[in-house]
Amino acid sequence: MTTLVSEVGVREHLKKYLMEYRNLPGFQVLVRKYGYSNLDELFEECLGEASKREDTLQFSVTPWGYFTLSEWLRKARRIMDGTPRVGVLRR
User: How many independent structural domains does the chain possess?
Assistant: First the structure.
């Protein structure tokens, strides 16, 4: 994983976790690991890119349900802002 991060940069790696994988728990771990703090800017960039894509519903475990990418990003952003937190990562 370290090699991938050094090649594409932390920001691009985090974007991939949000936009391609829709992996919020993994994203949260990486944010902590790399001490990334520009989350508002990153989410705005991702939402801008998502609005240009064709949205299809995709199932998500965190948060639970079927969402378009834009809906999922807005929900993930609210979770990252603090309400509610992903239970696995409360430690």
Answer: 1
Confidence of residue 78 (pLDDT cuts 50, 70, 90): very high
Q: Is residue 86 part of a domain?
A: no
Q: Is residue 18 part of a domain?
A: yes
Q: Contact at 8 Å (CB) between 15 and 46?
A: yes
Domain of residue 31 covers 2-81
What is the pTM assigned to this prediction?
0.77
d(CA 49, CA 64): 23
- Measured between alpha carbons, how far is 28 from 62 in angstroms, rounded to an integer? 12
Say which residues have a Cβ less than 8 Å from residue 43's Cβ, sequence separation at least 6.
18, 73, 76, 77, 80
